User: Fold these one by one.
Assistant:
Number 1:
Amino acid sequence: MIVLASSSASRALILKEYGVEFIQVCMEYDENFDSNLPPAKYAMSITNSKAKQFFDKFKNQYDRVLFADSSVVCQGVILGKAKDEIEARYMLKLQSNSLTSVYTAMKFITQNMIIDMLSIASYKFKEFDNDDLDRYIASNLWQGKAGAMMIEGFNKKYIEVQKGNKPTAMGLDIINLKAFL
């Protein structure tokens, strides 16, 4: 049994699909970081900060705790979670007909070890159809998603080339994580 220290429905779904027993502890995190950092350092900084914030609140109440964060990088710009429809549209327009990478950082803390992992999944997307983009923006499914990206939804039909695994793009590199569980 592990503790998923995240409110992410996508991460919970991945754990369920791969048969990992877990409880989910949701918490609001301060994710404001300098987006001028290199993408790998940015992703790991947020995950480390989440761990600190979690244990500041819960002390040693939990063991086997998993933290994760994903950021999308496109055209040299780190894209976090869109604050509104305008920002979501901007982020998705950057991804249209472009190479986009998802940096997923994970930190797994037990009484005996701390494991830090960084995984990257990259996609070359075809140009997004404007009407389809409008429908996706109106659906609000982009909310809470790094880069407003939904690789299992809207973005999926536009993939030309993929490198890396889908769970990484959804926010959790379960394939590497399972080696430590």
Number 2:
Amino acid sequence: MEFGLADIEDFNEIQKLYWNLINKSSNEPSFPGWKCGEHPSDDFIMASIVQKEMYVIRDEGQIKACAVCNCISNDEYEKVKWQVTDRGSNVLVIHALAVGYEYRGCGTGSRLLKDILAVARNNKYEAIHLDVIDNNEAAKRFYKKAGFKYICTQNIFYEVVGNRNFEMYEYVIIV
């Protein structure tokens, strides 16, 4: 498996990965409420690629997982008592991490997360923050297993799901 930044040529494959995942898992209890074309939107995907924030895992040339990593967070993140306070560029935030439906449970997501942690360390980030919608038990287990710590539950408004409770997680990077 190869880890790296997505290219503009990868847009259709990434969009297909998200849409396929949404279509095949929308009836599962841990489904995060994403909607095809709405979240992640085409504009979000393209902007993340252009701004060099979309990371992918490829195997035999095919994208099997992806995630957006940047320093942008929802306003509600400021209300959280993180161990490492975000000062604009010292905290990386993970958004829309997705593993292709056919590749779930095969270690692909763990590999993607491990490589994102390495990027964070190499770029001197102090922590990684993220949120997980309240019903997504699979994602909560995944992040906890990877060493992320639950910080609190925060009510956050996202256009695609409205006001919902999200569990806030943090991974402190020891250098």
Number 3:
Amino acid sequence: MAENRIGLLRWRVQARRHPSAFLLAAQLLSLVLYPIFDETRSSGRVLFGALGVVVLMLAVWVVNRSPAKVWVAWLLAAPALGLSVLSVVLANDTLLVVSSALEALLYLYAASSLIAYMLGDHRVTADELFAAGATFTLLAWGFAYAYFVCQAWYPGSFTGALRPGEPRTWLELLFLSFTTLSATGLGDILPLSSPARVLVMLQQFAGVAYIAVVVSRLVGLTMLRATK
């Protein structure tokens, strides 16, 4: 019993020291699980909703640890969570789209708060390195939800090498987001409508700015500390 309490205490200490690491781990874990559930229908929607709830709560938690106002995050997270659950229970696609729009705003807000947290410190810590990875995944998820909303509002906004006439799955949109943000540009998922292309251009700009401002600064501070 005492060992369990000590172990739990250690986890709490690590969570307070490295909240960004837990968010990054949750995002990467969901990446591993998505291919398993992506081909399912109703059960997949329930599992996606459950994963989204966990990641949303972690996103709010990370915002609370950063300079951002936590009430803004909860203002986005609370209705997003409620609408996500209702969309699964009622099988209502409209509620799912509205929930996705709120989740996109929440992820982008959490990413901006982590960027402010990293830029506000002149000493590179382990949590800031985890925050750099978590920020990248938050940006990727945020734009993926934006793509999902765009596809719902403007049918035919995206096409792909496989089943070009069908809507893109969530995993395909997330894949597009990662390849765009990382400037990989594999080209098997393409934007067709003007709103979709604008979103892709905005994400390309965000990816370049993230590397130029945040990552280069962390690398520079790390090298400066090593020379001292």
Number 4:
Amino acid sequence: MNENQVMALAAMCQVAKQVQKIAQYGSSNDYELEKLLNSIVETSPETPSDVYQGTENLRDGYKSLLNQLSAGEKKDVEIVKYVGGLMQLERALSAKASSLAELGKGIEDVKRRLDHFAITDDTVIAALADIYSKVLSPLGHRIQVYGKPDLLKQQLVQHKIRALLLAGIRSAVLWRQMGGKRRHFFFAKRKIIAIAKNHI
């Protein structure tokens, strides 16, 4: 287990926390939203931490990861389900070359929009959400989102959640690229905790 694997896990936890906030309260931390969405278009980073413009932007994610793994802490089942769902969906994506190609094309289209709009602009968020709907939803591993039904019916809320889940997939890709495996949760728990503690 290494720093980069734990960073990718923390990023998935941070995505899950943001999805949770939007689904339950309808609002999100715009600074965190911006950092997470930027990770989607950071396709050629010099170092893994460049995906998030530095690990300091993932402090909440590291805290959340620590809470999930520390004995005696109240575990958040939703966060566990979201992170597990992202990993499952990413595995389905990585097995399908045509979907990967479509994803890459969609992200390049969004990058061109960023010449004129901020990544948190509603039109860009809608475009990211559209990529998620067209490329990832058909793969069949649907991520169940828990929240207030009246909020989940709102289009902007739906768009933000799908755009964030796309950011979660970006982190799941990084997790796999860095050699992350599901068994690490069971056999490298103490190592994960030790690394996460250094970032909060």
